[in-house]
Amino acid sequence: MLDINAVAVFVQTVKTGSFAAAGRRLGQPANTVSRRVQQLEEQLGTRLLQRSTRKLSLTGAGREFFDRCVAGIEDIESAQAAISEGNGEPRGTVRAAVVADFFEFFPLERIEQLLSRYPELKLEFVLSDAHIDLIEQSIDVAFRAGDLPDSSLVARRLSDSQSHVLLASPAYLRKHGSPATIAELAGHDCLIAPAAQGRASWRLDGPEGAVEVRVGGRFASNTLLSQVRGVRAGLGIGLLPDSLIAEDLRAQGLVRVLPQYSRRSGGMFAVYPTRRQVPRAVAVLIEVVESALHELLTAGGGGGCIEPEIRPRRRV
Q1: Residue 95 pLDDT exceeds 60
Q2: Measured between alpha carbons, how far is 20 from 33 in angstroms, rounded to an integer?
Q3: How far apart are CA 316 and CA 117, in angstroms?
Q4: pTM here?
Q5: Which residues, other chains included, contact 50 with Cβ-Cβ below 8 Å and sequence gap of 6+?
Q6: Most CB atoms closer than 10 Å: which of 89, 204, 290, 301?
Q7: 277, 93 in Cβ contact below 8 A?
Q8: Predicted pLDDT at 288
C-alpha cells in the first residue's frame, strides 16, 4: 500500500516547484523531501519527476499521478485542519504577506490584542513590495489592494474601491505654480514608483471621461508612505488615496491639484492559495485586518491604504 504521507510530500513538491520550498512548507529538510519522493517512485516503479540542477519537471506519469492525487490530499488536509481545530481557539503559525510599509498604517495594537486573546497563535509577516509566490514562500494569506486580475488564487474583498486625488504642498505650488490642465502635469515633478525611462502613466477620470497622462519627476519611490512624505516635503505632485491625506487637507498642509480629476482603483483583498477550507487562525487574522481597515476608512473618509497591484497566477 502506498504511503499517503509520501504522496502528500510529492503533491507539495509539485505545487511549490522544488524540494527546498516543499520542505519549508512541510517543516522538513529538503533532502528528506527528496528521499520521500524517491521512495514513492520506487514503490510505483516509475519516475515522477525529472531532476536537473535548475528545476524539477513532471514526467508524463508524474502529471497523471499528481492530477489524480491532488484533490484527495487537499481534502485530507482540510479534514485534518477542521477536526484538529474544531470549535477551539485558533492555533499555529500564520504567515502573511503585506507591503513594506504596512505597519505604518495598520495599528500594531490590533496584533497585540489578537495574540493576547489567542496565546497559541503565532504570526509571521513578510513585508515586501515584490510580487512573491505564495506557495513557494509558504504564505497563508496576502493582503493587497488594486484591481484583481484573473488568477488561480482565491481572493476575498475586504473593502470597496478607493479614490486617489492629485495633491501638492503649498510650498511646491508657490515655487512651481499649479497646473491648469491635465496635460500640464507632464511638465511638473510628479511622485511615481521607479519606472522605465523614469516616467509613468496616470489614468484619471475627469469631466471629459477617462484620460491618461505621462508623468515623471526627480523623486521616485516604491512605497506609498514615502510618496506621501515626499508630497508633504514639497518634492512634487502626488496621486494618493484620499483616506491618507484627509487630515493634511483639513490642516491645509496639502492642496488639491486639478480637483476635477481623480482615480478609483480596486479595493482591498485577502488572497490565499487554495479554495479549500481556510484555517481558523488565518480567518481570525483576516477578520482583524478587515475590522481595522474599516475603522481607518471610516475615519479617513476614503478608500484603502495599501496599493500595489495583485499579479496573476500565484504571484502577488
Answers
A1: yes
A2: 8
A3: 30
A4: 0.62
A5: 56, 57, 58, 59
A6: 204
A7: no
A8: 94
